[in-house]
Amino acid sequence: MDGMLSPGIGKEAGLNPDIRRIIAVEAHRRRAGRCPVLVHSLDTGESFVIEPLPDGFRDATTGLTVRESTTGIALDGAAAVDLRLNGDIAFEGQDHASGERFTGHAGGGASVTFHDSRRVHFFQYAISYRPDGAIAQPG
User: Fold this and answer.
1) pLDDT, tens only, 119-130
2) What is this structure's pTM?
3) Which of 30, 65, 137, 139 could form a disulfide linkage to 76, CB 3.0–4.6 angstroms apart?
4) Which residue, among 76, 78, 67, has the nearest Cα to 30 in the 3D structure?
5) Domain count, the chain
6) Which DSSP category does 24 fall into?
7) CA 99, chain centre distance (Å)
8) Which residues contact 54 (CB under 8 A, 6 or more apart)?
């Protein structure tokens, strides 16, 4: 796989996988203007319930409430995360707890791609607005 990025599965990355998923959901929420209710990790095959709130969302797996802040993401009970949207689809930032920097792409469609700071590993998430997990977007 010389010259190719490797998927995140089975790889060690500095960022906590729950925080990585939360960042992906928030980047998507900001781009799309609406909050998904289910996120599928394409690396692990796991699905995660998201509970939309008027000013953010609650990640049901961790119990963390996520709100937008002036510099990025405020997480109730956890360290803040810097998040900046760049151009039409790109985002970047830094997790304060791990010090890990990240980049990614979230255009408001049905997926988010997340890269570690070295762009060695990537993580992909499918986004659903339907509790049954269907990827079809609301009309």
Assistant:
1) 888 999 999 988
2) 0.85
3) 65
4) 67
5) 1
6) H
7) 17
8) none
